[in-house]
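Hi R.,

Here's the chain you asked about this morning:
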Amino acid sequence: MKTTPNKILIALAAIAATLLALAGFSAKAREKLLAWTKPAAAAAPTPAATEGKRKILYYQDPMHPWYRSDKPGIAPDCGMKLVPIYADETGAAAPTTPGAVRISAARQQLIGVVSVPARYRTIDKTIRTVGRVALDEERIANVHVKVSGWIQKVFVDYTFQHVMKGDPLFTLYSPELLATEQEYLLALKAEREFGSSSFAEVAVGGRNLLEAARRRLELWDLTDEQVNELEKTGKPQREITFYSPATGHVLERKAFPNQYVTPDTELYKLADHSVVWVYADVYEPELPLVELGQEAILTAESLPGRKLIGHITFIQPHLMGETRTLPVRMEFPNPSLELKPDMFVNVELRRSLGRQLTVPIDAVLDSGDRQRVFIDRGDGYFLPREVKVGERTENYATIASGLRAGEKVVTRANFLIDSESNLREAMAGMAGMGREGQTAPSQPDPANPAGHQH
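And the predicted structure, written out as tokens:
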């Protein structure tokens, strides 16, 4: 076996130290001799190598802080260059704060650390949901006649035909209605002949008879124009035209020529689409943000670039057990009839949360049982801080406690900082357990660094 000069020097140093100890040399002379042989003993590289004047402890993957290496190189997981971790970076950033870390400016730039201050803002909470367009039940009209008879002509003769209030629907021949017209004409003639009678009872009786006949015609849905025409011509009309009582589309049509109808017969069902209802489901946690009269914004794929404004008119009192949602009803104007029943639309409900202390939503790390942020204390120090988060919006989270306005929180690369913080906490815990259970190696005695037995 070939012996290297370094090994020869190390062996000589060991022999010399033994001889000096046996000869009773002083500790001071022994230290001088060991110092003479130290350069040869320190020839092998260690993780605590130096780069310039800064001491390197190890090399770390910037994307996966738990991966460490004694030598520089490339991380096997992400292919990034390992970065050195210096001894001054692992110093106690905040000795009383577990999990605090210190990251150099160069490494911060490498992993993309961004910090912003927490500040007060006036923010709105937006609830987005899907709605379904429905008919306004208050704008549905059923058409009946109040006398029996036969339909003669039909002017509105197909379903979904749009009609305006006052448009003719059909004509009706009714013997009862015809008799009432004749009674009215007789009462009108009597009132004209006896209205100026010197007998007051006769004059009053003629007027009462005329008013009763006219009132009966009005109750049977004859218009003022039809009654006036009857007075003008003095002849009863065999067929009376009936008109639409409302504007809308024909949902049901049951009127046909030569059909015998009674007051029980439903002839038409009309629906006014100028105002529509929209039903939407709101999830249980969002219920405190919903109230009657609240503004709603509607958008639809069939209305690109347009927004319709409506209001909440009804909140259902019972929660849907299967979906854990509560249906709410909104009312929207629809003058152009662009919203069709059963159409699906998007609805936004906005509620002002007032002035709140906020941080960007990306700053909060939520593990389910706790939320925390990392405070940027400057000079590369980052401290974990547990906070209580209130409402969340698209961009911000409100902070109920645990943070003050102006404190800087990390919004980018905080997952990497959190990983290293958790790693530091775990290592610190293991070290503590080792000291308590005497399982970790004891620290060297400064008076006896080599651990020699005397």
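Residues 1-44 form one domain.

Let me know if you need anything else.
M.
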